[in-house]
Amino acid sequence: MASLQRAPRSRRSIKTWYHSGGLSSIVFVLPLLLTFLYFSWGPIVRGLVLSFQKNNLVTAPEWVGMANFSYVLTDPQLPQAAVNTLYFALLALIFGFPVPLFLAVFISELRSTGWLYNVISYLPAVVPPVAAILLWKFFYDPSGTGVFNAILGWFGLGPFAWLNSPSLAMPAIVLEATWAGAGATSIIYLAALTGVRTELYEAAELDGAGIWSRVWHVTLPQIRGIILIMMLLQLIGTFQVFTEPFLFTGGGPDNATTTILLLIYRYAFINGDFGAATALSVLLAGVLCVLSVVYHLLTRPWSTT
Amino acid sequence: MSQTVQERGIISHADRKRSVIRYGLPAIQVLLFIGVFIAGVGPLLWLLKSGLSTSQDILRGPMQLWPSGIQWANLPNAWTRVQIGSYLGNTAIIAIGSLVSTLFVCTTGAFVLSVLRPKWGPIVTGAVLATLFLPGVISLVPLYLTILKMPVLGVNLQNTFWAVWLPQAAGAFNILVMKRYFDSIPRELIEAARIDGASNLRLFTSLVLPLSKPILGVVALLTVIGSWKDYLWPLLVLPDPRLQPISVALPRVQETTEISLQMSALFLAVLVPVVLFLVFQKQFLRGVGMSGGIKE
């Protein structure tokens, strides 16, 4: 608008600016600028500001310095939540990392029936996660007639308390998460495997390498780039896990499955303490940024690029 | 097996002649198939059976192969009493709206950054790229507060679908992927269209967009999957039950309905995406596979 008013004075430069596409650039970039200002850049800045404020939406926000951070860091629930989150990430890495990789390497060896394995193993990823969680919650019924207990009963095992047991609850949640996520991850590995140079297998075989050593020394090194990235993305994802513990156990039993994000949710949407919630979010985000950088530095020797 | 034309894999022809491999490989194949089948199809079959059983059957003998009688009435009951249909409809509205807003923002944005290339372009690209490295958790609470009262505009978007559609569009990943794809369009094509007198709008709609169909498909697929899976965000911004997608509605409904209806509601909620997936499996798996290459 301002440019239209100024037009008579500098018509020439405005005209060249207009003809070189200056105006349409601005029109085209507006949707991006507006959505990012409102829903990305704005909230990030606001999050940093909020973490130094006392804000409950009722009274006017006031600056409180580091009070939110010290409150969050001294909350007796935090160490437990941090340990639980790390435990979830670790279990998810142990269960959830090798399974899709093994599946992908195996499926890539099957010429005619590979697609069938693909479709079937991807099915759990298509089930809406909430529906899957509710279904598994029923499977984990702690009574003797619960689905898993009934199956294990055939072999003389159990019954287990599953989600009601502080020691079994987290592994049970991770098992479901792995089931839900393995298909999608293995599809990504599979796509990467199509780019493996097969003539190297020939060379490895001539050198006397067995099948396992061919997988270990030829296949995996060639897709290490994607493996490293998927591992980092999985770590970042598991550190921010919410839906599974929230719906399976709500953080129980005895806070055995309370994760950092569950704590943030409680601060913000149950206690109405938005300052504490954002302070913890900022801390978690900081930890994840440091983790990404450290991971990047540590894996650089193996990385392809 | 006609392996003469096929490319070799890890296991060579010589390997295949060894008896360990000859008999071991099919055995592993069968075992793995049973494993994958139980994990992938088993729960769905169990859900089908339970969705058609009485509550007593489900609770007393969940692993019985055949229920005492098939309760076809469960399905229409779940459809009308639990209103699965309207929740699925909400899910579809949310997914389609997110898809439209995401594609609109990321194609127009990438068009400016990649094709029009104004002087200030790199600043915007950098600002978009920077958000990619920040984990989503940092903006969860402030984003919620933004929705409650939009800065400057002062409107409350809670309990409108806009609250889900718009934040979805501010994804750095999609914009950068789209920009990278647009970057690969030969500049000569664009210059030729310019010389022919095409306006920027025409350049966008009749040259750049038609050339980017594959990437549009991938971004569309990932957006729909993402919005389909989302739980926490719609839970926060859509407290009105009439607007909730199926993911938010199911846990709430579950508390007040009997187990047999729960199971048939779950079955219907699962059936729609599974059928869609089976129909479009080829495009689907290719799209998801490509997303890995993009991440790299």
UniProtKB/TrEMBL annotation, chain A:
- Check the record and name the CDD domains matching this protein: TM_PBP2
GO BP field:
transmembrane transport
Question: How does this chain sit within the bilayer?
Answer: Multi-pass membrane protein
What is the protein's major site of localization? membrane
User: Which N-terminal residues, if any, form the signal peptide?
Assistant: none
| Cited InterPro entries | ABC_transporter_permease (IPR051393), MetI-like (IPR000515), MetI-like_sf (IPR035906)
* Compartments, as annotated in UniProt: Cell membrane
The family assignment reads: Belongs to the binding-protein-dependent transport system permease family.
Q: Which UniProt keywords apply?
A: Cell membrane, Membrane, Sugar transport, Transmembrane, Transmembrane helix, Transport
List, alphabetically, the PANTHER family matched: ABC TRANSPORTER PERMEASE PROTEIN, DIACETYLCHITOBIOSE UPTAKE SYSTEM PERMEASE PROTEIN NGCF
Species of origin: Kribbella caucasensis
Protein name from the UniProt record: Multiple sugar transport system permease protein
Taxonomy, superkingdom: Bacteria
An example Gene Ontology CC term for this record: plasma membrane
Per UniProt, residues of the ABC transmembrane type-1 domain are: 82-295
Q: Which chain regions cross the lipid bilayer?
A: 21-41, 86-107, 119-140, 223-242, 274-298
Automatic annotation (TrEMBL), chain B:
Instruction: Write the protein's name.
Output: Multiple sugar transport system permease protein
CDD domains assigned to the protein according to its UniProt record, in alphabetical order: TM_PBP2
Q: Which residues form the ABC transmembrane type-1 domain?
A: 88-280
Q: Which SUPFAM superfamilies match?
A: MetI-like (SSF161098)
Where does it primarily localize?
Answer: membrane
Gene3D superfamilies in alphabetical order: MetI-like (1.10.3720.10)
* Location of this chain's protein in the cell: Cell membrane
What the entry lists under Pfam families is as follows: BPD_transp_1
Q: Which residues span the membrane?
A: 20-46, 92-116, 123-145, 165-182, 203-228, 259-280
Family indicated by similarity: Belongs to the binding-protein-dependent transport system permease family.
In Gene Ontology terms, what is a biological process of this protein? transmembrane transport
- Domain of life of the source: Bacteria
Cite the entry's keywords alphabetically.
Cell membrane, Membrane, Sugar transport, Transmembrane, Transmembrane helix, Transport
* Membrane-related topology note: Multi-pass membrane protein
Q: Please provide, in alphabetical order, the Gene Ontology terms of the cellular component aspect for this entry.
A: plasma membrane
